[in-house]
Design goal:
The structure is a homodimer. Chain A contains 16 helices and 16 strands. The first copy, chain A, is an alpha/beta fold. Chain A folds into 2 domains: 241 residues, Aldehyde Dehydrogenase, Chain A, domain 1, CATH 3.40.605.10; 148 residues, Aldehyde Dehydrogenase, Chain A, domain 2, CATH 3.40.309.10. Chain A has a 7-stranded parallel beta sheet. In chain A, strands 5-4-3-6 form a 4-stranded parallel beta sheet, sandwiched between helices. In chain A, strand 12, helix 15 and strand 13 form a beta-alpha-beta unit. The two termini of chain A are 47 Å apart. At the A-B interface, helix 10, helix 15, strand 13 and strand 16 of A face strand 2, helix 10, helix 15, strand 13 and strand 16 of B. Strand 16 of chain A pairs parallel with strand 13 of chain B, so a sheet runs across the interface.
């Protein structure tokens, strides 16, 4: 039996036990895990330093190195995250709905854990703790599969929290890290359908594509955000400027940042020069369609590829469109169904845009940057789903559960 | 471009249009489709006769031939199914929840169609109409892929309803049948992730396994039912007998029929002889564990394989278990997470069984045969999900939808 299969069997057994553990016991365990993190911060930083050294030796980029690096403050934030989960309400056991049939059968649909959740993620070691906390709270056993670049940090963090959880009474095997970081072991995890109920990839587009292609375990696709803002003919242009600048520059490296701006031709000549000036001052490179280039001298041409691109950087594709209809068509053609916004003062345009755009989160007169479990008030977030099955948009604790029907009778048979 | 890809593109375009069609227009179309079926029944039966002839020539079994065969009555039932869908309430547009954030943003989570639904199914041509009706009602474009043995029936039925739907104003391409029945075209459909939002296989275990293995499109696994009834130590044995006999013999060829009976050792000596007599009289073959064989002379031995088997026939595996705990363990080990029942008068046993058994539908003192969308009062059913993502148990119209977040603001940006 392979290492991965052993992990799967152990997780399956743990999940069965964890499913019936009380909320109180899970919350105590989360508190215990938080305490363990803060009390062992020096060792955690030591393990992280090994990963950092290896990263520097291997010529890791500054951005990746920053994501990899832990500090006392970051460890404190992880612990705080666990304490907040302990304080959150437990989704398991919620009666979603229920009714009585004519024959007397009493049916209720009850929220239950998914079972075993696999998380495949890249550099950031905080995912180890955040994802494990969310899974424990929602009654799921978790199999964590991080990247080789963070293996020392991940190994130590997972050991600390798994041990603390077990000490507090959680079944062994609730939190397991895949000790291997080669491609084959990742692929084996993706095909462990017998033991793993869902796989959530957290990382770049390449990772997500691989998981979607290779996995026989059901996958929740997360995170790729090619987000749009459409400045309609009737837009308040001051508001549009604020929203566009926020959506592009507030944090360009995240999935809910805007990547393409669409501008109605009726306001393009007035709006583009003013917003271009501000964006350029903030360091944004513009890539425009022909109409945009006519209005804004010296702007580089956008290619077909640009419309598909998730830059995650201070680059913005700009296109002038003849109509709301064309804006919707553009978004549905090139977008990743994540987050889109319209700036308008026209009620009909708002209604047509929100109905016609096929994305998880559709905004009227607000920045796409709000797409986030915390901002939405859902509490901690395991990711943002860009698929339509099971969950769509920011996923909180509830999205880490399934349901079962429980039916009570007194001898009913079918005739 | 391949035939399959063309179908996908056309379905995607149709889905975008269909998503914003009113309930009234969809209901009119469903009525029109029903009328078309009844008015063209002779031609439908003619097309079906071609399939039947080919089936007989190819030595098709009687059971399969029965599933393939249409009659005026069966066509009438299909039409009636469409009229019932027209009368059902529309799931699209339901505001699932909504709230206002501190910053004034108004969030609502609204039910929307999934988009494009692919159905891969075996012999029964009524699925063509039933599935298309459910998809149209829930605002989804559907790509139907039936088996070669029913190709003439499926082609004619799909043409009749697609044409009727279009005449009534539905966008073209809402209902499409894959004209090919080779394996390669099925596999291509399974990998058409760009255009197909979900794939639902309806058929035997082999078909479902293939789809799960091959598909990159998200799949909802349906239907395989290795269902159990556990007769507890405290069971009312008269009730237990009624439930067991109903669950095994009422319709043995369907997924919610019982395949294994577990009996607590405390009542095995009393219960097994009486229930065995009745089951045997009804033509049921028993396959027992060693303890069962000690109590029931002449019963064939059950092998490890029997515990995994979905017989879909008048065969029952029987095992005597020492405890409730062991019954739960057996079900979670060998079952297919479909439907299980306990017969008991012990409250604690009922609670432990319903909590511990990891299946879509868990019954106390009732037959597993009730697992059905119609029986549950959900209306028509597209299948019974045995996976945990998105939907679990009987799936009705609501399970053919997703949601989107629509957020209204007045210029909010993130700080």
């Amino acid at each position: 039996m392979s290492v991965i299969e052993e992990l799967g069997i152990r997780a399956g057994e743990a999940a069965r036990e964890l499913a019936v553990v009380t909320a109180e016991a899970k919350n105590n365990a989360l508190e215990e895990m938080a305490r363990a993190l803060t009390s062992r911060v020096d060792e955690i930083l030591g393990a992280n330093e090994e990963d950092r050294k290896a990263g520097i030796e291997n010529g890791m980029s500054d951005a990746l190195l920053d994501r990899l690096t832990l500090s006392e403050k970051r460890v404190g934030e992880m612990a705080q995250g666990l304490r907040e989960l302990a304080a959150a309400s437990d989704p398991v056991g919620e009666v979603v709905e229920g009714w009585r049939l004519a024959n007397g059968l009493e049916i209720k649909k009850v929220r239950v854990p998914l079972g075993v959740v696999g998380i495949i993620y890249e550099a950031r070691p905080n995912v180890t703790v955040d994802a494990a906390g969310l899974c424990v709270k929602s009654g799921n056993a978790v199999i964590l599969r991080g990247s080789s670049s963070a293996i020392n940090s991940n190994r130590f963090l997972s050991e600390v929290i798994a041990h603390a959880g077990e000490s507090a009474g959680l079944p062994g095997g609730c939190i397991q890290l895949v000790p291997l970081t080669d491609r084959e072991s990742a692929k084996e995890l993706m095909r462990l359908r017998k033991y793993v109920d869902v796989l959530i990839p957290r990382g770049g587009a390449g990772l997500i594509r691989t998981v979607v292609e290779e996995s026989t375990v059901p996958v929740i696709e997360t995170g790729v955000g090619n987000c749009h803002t459409f400045v309609d003919a009737s837009a308040d242009l001051d508001m549009a400027e604020r929203i566009v600048v926020n959506a592009k520059t507030h944090r360009p490296g995240v999935c809910n940042a805007m990547e393409t701006m669409l501008v109605h031709e009726a306001v393009a000549a007035e709006f583009l020069p003013r917003v271009a000036q501000e964006l350029t001052q903030l360091g944004v490179e513009l890539r425009g369609c022909e109409r945009t280039q006519e209005i804004l001298q010296g702007v580089k041409a956008a290619t077909e590829d640009d419309w598909y691109e998730e830059y995650l950087d201070l680059i913005l594709a700009v296109r002038v469109v003849p109509s709301l209809q064309e804006a919707i068509r553009h978004i549905n053609t090139y977008g990743s169904q994540h987050s889109e916004a319209i700036v308008t003062s026209d009620l009909d345009a708002a209604r047509r845009f929100t109905a016609g755009v096929d994305s998880a989160d559709v905004y009227v007169n607000a920045s796409t940057r709000f797409t986030d479990g915390g901002q939405f008030g859902l509490g901690a977030e395991i990711g943002i789903s860009t698929q339509k099955l099971h969950a769509r948009g920011p996923m909180g604790l509830r999205e880490l559960t399934s349901t079962k029907f429980i039916i009570y009778g007194d001898g009913q048979v079918r005739s």
